[in-house]
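Task: complex structure prediction.
Instruction: return structure tokens for all chains below.
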Amino acid sequence: MNKEFSANRIKGMGTSIFSTMSRLAFENNAVNLGQGFPDFDGPLWLMEEAFKAMKEGKNQYAPTQGILSLRKAISDIQKKYYGMDRNPDSEITITAGATEALYSTFQALINEGDEVIMFEPFYDSYQADVILAGGIPKYVTLKKPDFNFDFDELEQSITEKTKIIVINTPHNPTGKVYTFEELEFISKLAIKHNLLVVSDEVYEFLTFDNAKHIPIATLEGMKDRTITISSAGKTFSMTGWKIGWAIASDKITESIRKVHQWTTFAVNTPGQHAIANAFSRLDEYLPAFKKEYLERRDLLLKELVSTSFSAHKPKGSYFMMVDIPKLNIMSGVTPDMVNDEEIAINLVKNYKIATIPPSVFYGKSDEGKSMLRLCFAKSNETLIAGAKNLRKFK
Ligand code: PMP
Ligand code: GLN
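Output:
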């Protein structure tokens, strides 16, 4: 068969770097600080909630928009933590993880040729989703060392075709937490140019030190312009449960639900019940959760001091970027030829440590080539073993 059956819109799309690096970690029996998932389970009581729901017969299709008690719980969190009034009937949709919320949102909003601005390094599905929807990604760089962006660069990237600005705070992969001033600038531009903002907040409860998570929807004039996306996977250390949501005005929600009904129709029922019940315990759950992640971050930072990799201390999320040591990388390689992908392959194969080479998260700048992303959602033993292997690389 020499006929080309694949659709044009998927041409050029490769395998996700997360799958690639986890496969290499497995094949090489390497410590995995690559793909972002905890190497421990979330709380036992949450598993028991899911089993309880199953035993109570909550095993058939949920309503397409998600079960009401979960939508209400999300609405309550929005009110309690951020002072936002969100209608659970018309403004909240439960999706198969944040991944599906993002996909359904972009499919629902983008027309052929619409431009979507995203900050690089970006979470890889934004770029793929925008392309799949017929849109054109445009990039604004979060620059080392603080991963701040140039306000002028953002303003100048807006054209008459721009429809959406995508933000992610706390940020994967850099650990940046957007400040009020940054969010205010983005909001003012969105209002001035009549744009929407897609705000990915899956790490909303993972901030450290004095960083504070501010949902952009809370800024003046932004509630109806923002599509807020989040997920229970990170907050409860159960990434495989894939329960996420999109919060938006009723009109935008109507559009998102149109795509969602033909994408997954509904999300697994017992998991929704379990997460709805878990949210009623959020207040008591969060302090220990945050403390444990802070300890993991600090342990990895401490362990990295005696390696040749220098870390950019993250203020949120469970990732950190490290600079690749520039000297003695490989014989014949000069500092300006540092290439994250080559180094990551070398590390996983020869040093038994899997990382994520971040250059795939950039569409414009070469900055990613000089760094690697490490995930610290791992047990102390894994973090120590990972750093031990990194230490051998000079
Ligand atoms: N957005 C970001 C920034 C992420 O890091 C991830 C996954 N870790 C997702 C979205 C996808 O979330 P989910 O697993 O709920 O689909
Ligand atoms: N979000 C996770 C990460 O950043 C990966 C999720 C996935 O593999 N799709 O590593």
